[in-house]
Design a protein that fits this description.
single chain; about 0% strand
Length: about 110
């Protein structure tokens, strides 16, 4: 009787342990959820990094100019912006008037 009771207890504990063990599908689901949490965290970090990089920080200064020189396409861009900037005569006349004032102040002494 004692052996039978011990056997029944061991058998019941064995079923108890098996009944609460995770099935392969549950293990797979748990792993999937863990990986999803990690990937979501990485996506958020990448997103905040990208927004801060776009907000204020530039890439290396002159990156595209250096890249163009390296690839053999340096100086091949249109210079429309520089042309339009040169059309404005105001800086030229300001500089001329400053030089005139300097010469005038130099001779008045």
């Amino acid at each position: 009787m004692k052996k039978m009771t011990v056997g029944i207890l061991l058998l019941s504990f064995g079923f108890y342990g098996v009944s609460f063990a995770a099935t392969p599908d549950e293990v797979k689901e748990a792993h999937f959820k863990a990986m999803k949490a990690i990937k979501d965290k990485q996506r958020e970090a990448r997103k905040t990094e990208n927004t801060t990089a776009r907000a204020g920080e530039k890439q290396a200064p002159g990156f595209w100019e250096k890249e163009g020189e390296r690839s053999g396409l340096g100086g091949s861009g249109s210079r429309a912006g520089q042309f339009i900037k040169n059309l404005n005569p105001v800086p030229f006349f300001k500089e001329q008037s400053q030089r005139y004032e300097e010469r005038k102040a130099g001779t008045a002494k």
